[in-house]
From TrEMBL:
The organism's place on the tree of life at top rank: Bacteria
Pathway assignment: Carbohydrate degradation; glycolysis; D-glyceraldehyde 3-phosphate and glycerone phosphate from D-glucose: step 3/4
EC number: 2.7.1.11
Binding, substrate: T129, I130, D131, R166, M173, G174, R175, E225, R248, H254, I255, Q256, R257
PROSITE patterns in the cross-refs: PHOSPHOFRUCTOKINASE (PS00433)
Chain positions recorded as ADP binding sites: R24, A25, V26, V27, R28, R158, G189, A190, E191, K216, S217, S218
Catalytic activity: beta-D-fructose 6-phosphate + ATP = beta-D-fructose 1,6-bisphosphate + ADP + H(+)
Residues of the Phosphofructokinase domain: 6-279
Cofactor requirement: Mg(2+)
Function: Catalyzes the phosphorylation of D-fructose 6-phosphate to fructose 1,6-bisphosphate by ATP, the first committing step of glycolysis.
UniProt name for this protein: ATP-dependent 6-phosphofructokinase
The keyword Cytoplasm appears for this protein: yes
Amino acid sequence: MKAIKNIAVLTSGGDAPGMNAGIRAVVRTGIYNDLNVFGIRRGYDGLVKGEIVPMDAKSVANIIQRGGTMLKTARSEEFKTYEGRKQAYENIQKLGIDALIVIGGDGTFTGASKFIEEFDIPIIGMPGTIDNDLAGTDFTIGYDTAINTVVDAVDKIRDTAESHDRVFVIEVMGRDSGLIALRSGISTGAEAVLIPELNVDYDAIMKRLDKSRKNKSSRIIIVAEGDKEGGEVVADKIKENFPHYDVRLSILGHIQRGGRPSCMDRVLASRLGVASVEGLLQGRRGEMAGLICGQVQFTPFNKAIKHIDKINENLTRIVEILSL
Ligand code: F6P
């Protein structure tokens, strides 16, 4: 196995709070181990276009507390083509880069797997997405900050909902995943949570709303963006079934992706950044570093991208029991 001397890090897909802490950890752990570290700007797009810059300890100073990603990110169409990946390979060859650390979600790891298959590049992944939709880690970098942003917003909406005796349908992010909806639903006392992973029985939800305590001042229904109907349709259905309810829809949108990372996300990103570089040096490839029950564990990319087991149906039951 070729010794690793030069590594590069990139962030890809949707940004997530804590990515900066992850970049900082990779750069400094690399330097600590006498490696040369490069930063790739704009994810795989920058890899294809050769936007690769040397990093030093100072270049990642004062970023641990910042949201977003200082390396910028993108969803690259070019990298999905063989020609794009070949160009990317030539760019890293030119600089003598031996290995990559990629921070992102399922799209990032799918791209990384293809790249390894075709060009035999050592790659380790770090889970960076607000959606938490990756297996092999209890939480992804950015999820904790995002759910706290959602909780803060829903608490505020609850105030106005109570004052006006209104029903609010609140759509939260999660293109393929209900994990933001589920956890924020429990912690805000939502009356119902709709997520894409579970088949929604709308009749049951309508019955529940109907049966719920008549003296409730407000009702909150949290809908994951990836739910097959989406917030708008759910709000319309509630209006149709309960014309006497005053229903409003609120789509929280990209506010959920920004902001200062929480302590949890900073520590998670720092731990996984160190583990990723150390894993590469120990000969690991094609795996994602994650944290399971407080311990670092590595999971092959093809297993990490399947998150369905993370849906704990007991949590949906808790929403129902506690919404009396
Ligand atoms: O990063 C994940 C995510 O926030 C999803 O929850 C959401 O569906 C998607 O990104 C939105 O992506 P974009 O910002 O490209 O519209």
